[in-house]
Amino acid sequence: EDVQVIQRQIKIKLIKVTKEPPAKYTREEKQKFQDLAFKEYEENPNQLRLFLLARYSIMRRKEMWALPKRHIDLDAGTITVKDVTELDFKVKTHVQRTIKIHPALLDFMRKDFKRFPRLYFLDTGSGPFAHADALTRIMVRMRDRLKIRPAAKILQGLRSTGVSDLLLSSKDHVKVAQLAGHSEATMLTSYKN
After folding, report:
1. Beta strands in the chain, from DSSP E residues, in sequence order
2. In 3-116, which ranges are continuous DSSP H helix?
3. Is residue 56 within 8 Å of residue 162, measured between CB atoms?
4. What's the predicted TM-score (pTM) here?
């Protein structure tokens, strides 16, 4: 017979299957969140701080929770995402990154820090919130009051929206992955335009 058996090892790189990303928010929905947060800034400044940070920075929930003022450089217009030892916070990918602050967020931060001096960007008045879950509760209360469609992970939905917006406006997917804190650009395949 003319059959020949070839015995050799073949390496196959498996594709990582990711979960469907959370629903993204429309321009109108983001505007509703922002309008409510600005309206209630005096009585609840963390609501506006959280929304603007989530909308413009594409940071993860725990990264926002553990953001001390010392990691924000208003002169350079950057946020450095890195471990915060006093909160036992470690960056998910174990890689420090620097994010350029969006002009709208930077303008707000400058005014807000002058008005309310504090150690953390999201601060209760006596330090950071006890846990990152408190941030989710702030956004869920806003969403429910605005009657915006529910998303299981509201802050991840804002992050997903931001990453998708960046992917639409940039051809450099590696840079977008770095800004989002992903270890590989292939992680962006779960974001849909």
Report:
1. 72-73, 78-81, 97-100
2. 27-39, 45-57, 61-65, 103-115
3. yes
4. 0.81
- Bridge partner residues of 193 (DSSP): none
Distance, C-alpha 184 to centroid of its chain: 17
Q: Which long-range contacts (CB under 8 A, 24 or more apart) does 88-95 make?
A: 89/62, 89/65, 91/63, 91/181, 92/60, 92/62, 92/63, 92/181, 93/181, 93/182, 93/183, 95/181, 95/183
For the chain, the C-alpha Rg in angstroms (whole number) is 20
Report the distance separating Cα 186 and Cα 55, nearest Å. Answer: 23
DSSP state of 123: B
Mean pLDDT by 10 residues, the chain (193 residues): 69 64 82 96 95 92 95 97 95 90 95 93 89 92 89 80 80 76 68 57
Strand partners, 120: 68
pLDDT of residue 162: 80
Strands 72-73 and 97-100: unpaired
**8-state DSSP, 181:** T
- Do 59 and 99 meet the contact criterion of CB atoms below 8 Å apart? yes
- pLDDT attached to residue 15: 59
